[in-house]
Design a protein that fits this description.
- By secondary structure, the chain is α/β, with parallel strands linked by helices.
- The chain has a domain of about 100 residues: P-loop containing nucleotide triphosphate hydrolases (Rossmann fold).
- The protein is built from ten helices and eight strands.
- The strands form two sheets. Strands 2-3-1-4-8 form a five-stranded parallel beta sheet, with helices on both faces. A three-stranded antiparallel beta sheet has the order 6-5-7.
- A hairpin with a 5-residue loop joins strand 5 and strand 6.
- Helix 3 packs antiparallel against helix 4 and helix 6 packs across helix 7.
Length: about 220
């Protein structure tokens, strides 16, 4: 039996960072759909070539192909005990397709990091990315010692275009339309655990660990 941990939440909720920490703490692979695409495209696999055809045509890669990549990855020995999913599912049809294909004895735990829009906008609009090394700073939470200069490598700090407040609002609208319905879906299955994602990161992580190890009765 494998434990499948799914992190849900709006952009800026900290899913990527917390997924990495949770995977390390639980000694489980952190399975990112972005990494799966890069791996299959770079290795020229059959499924990667089929995905490339859609991408070259400017079309979305069908869920069937994404699921094929995913289940090829989680069939490897390191996922035998379970894995942490990052970036999938993003829509209700993807969640339903995933649930239908998972082995009957797998234990799914969906964890929703809940953060208000105002907190998301503050978090994302304040991010500063090093143009040289990709290191992150934040104008409020981790400001650089010298304005505009990365503490780590001295590179120029810039604000990404998708971190502009108006773009963040658009991303939140897409999230509410496409991904937020997954919360109700997993809640209806008795698989959802809610966490206040606006708390201090270490507190969020502690509650994530508790949710990941809770029995199904405690989680439901």
């Amino acid at each position: 039996m494998a434990t499948v941990l799914i992190l849900l939440g709006p952009p800026g909720a900290g899913k990527g960072t917390q997924a990495s920490r949770l995977a390390a703490e639980r000694s489980l692979p952190h399975v990112s759909t972005g990494d799966l695409f890069r791996e299959n495209l770079s290795q020229g696999t059959d499924v990667g070539k089929r995905a490339q055809e859609f991408m070259d045509a400017g079309k979305l890669v069908p869920d069937e192909i994404v699921l094929e990549m995913l289940f090829d990855r989680v069939a490897r020995p390191d996922c035998a005990r379970g894995y942490v999913l990052d970036g999938f599912p993003r829509t209700l049809p993807q969640a339903e397709a995933l649930q239908a294909r998972l082995p009957a004895d797998d234990e799914v735990r969906a964890i929703s990091l809940e953060v208000d829009d105002e907190v998301v906008v503050r978090r994302l609009s304040g991010r500063l990315t090093c143009s040289k090394g990709g290191h992150m700073h934040h104008v409020d939470f981790s400001p650089p010692k010298v304005a505009g200069v990365c503490d780590t490598c001295g590179g120029e700090l810039v604000r990404r275009k998708d971190d502009a407040p108006e773009v963040i609002q658009e991303r939140l609208a897409v999230y509410r339309e496409q991904t937020a319905p997954l919360i109700g879906y997993y809640e209806g299955l008795g698989l959802l655990h809610r966490i206040d994602g606006a708390q201090e990161p270490d507190r969020v992580f502690a509650e994530l660990v508790d949710a990941a190890t809770a029995t199904r009765r405690e989680t439901a």
